[in-house]
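Exam prep: given the inputs below (a chain plus zinc ion), describe the expected output before reading on.
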Amino acid sequence: MVSKITFLGTAGDSLVYSKQIRSSGGFVIKTGGYQFFIDPGPGALNRSSFCNINPRETTAVIVTHSHVNHSSDLNAIVSAMSYNGIDKLGVIIANKSVIEGREGDTPVLSEFHKGCVERVFTMTEGQKIGIENMEIHAIKALHDDPDTIGLKFFTQDFVLGYTSDTAYKKELIEQYKKCDILIMNIVHPSGESSDNNLSSDDAVKILSKTKPQLAIITHFGKGMIKADPILEARRIQKESGVQVIAATDGMVISPNYYSAEMKQRTLNLYPSDEKDEDVEAEHSVEHTGIEAKEAAEDKEENTLDKKEEIEQESKAEEEKEEEEDKDFPAEEESEKELEEKPKEKQKFLLDE
Ligand SMILES: [Zn+2]
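Solution:
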């Protein structure tokens, strides 16, 4: 089964998510038959439906910090994954402030919703948790919620890093080394900076040394939207030597095609590098209906890399054809499956 990462929304600061200039709601990883819901911010439930994600299939919902744009829909997602607690299912993994609150502030996770899942884990810097076939490591972030964590996901096929919200610090380079894909919350464009979040200039510093197969920038602030994330991605790519994509709302990536190990296997199947790139272009990026149209519009407005153009064009065509059919048979099938086969209880392991 090919793994997928779906970006429900790409909004960063309050100016962008409050007006929904870009959608918000976090992202979802599907791998090995399990679903991991990361940072369910405003609209996560709504966007799930739009992006063909069934929250009921969630194995773990993971929240990196208590800021509203990362956590506001946590209770809603927990409710959706457990039929409001009737079928206790899955786990919640979150930083300390989401579960326990912090000075002068209540916890985001309600007592009721704590009881809707099998286990609740509080994760702090340096901890590791094994959930089914996934191992998750927590990484210290530098943010105004002092308990914020970044994440590193180890699967059989790929290693995925997620910076969450953090200011730049040298340690990030060591911590995010050996990722196949690095998702970076880049709130600020080049030339703009803050004490709480990363900028395009910080992305260059990190990527030049960590060298993942692919970096995806997301979580854009107002300045970033103004500067145009696609142009910023191109700049970061040029200066760091790493392939960089600017996430769009609803974008779907197949991480397997960016795994160093998988690339090796593909190279064995297809003797020339050129052929390998063709395979990547065909399969690596998908868009949901509206995003495909947005991507096509973006293409007209901006000068994209040739490769990005091929990816987006071929997917736009496929999605258009799918739009015409419009029955969503796959979703109906998965709903049916859920009713017939009650989900097994999860396996997990906490390494303090
Ligand atoms: Zn934050």
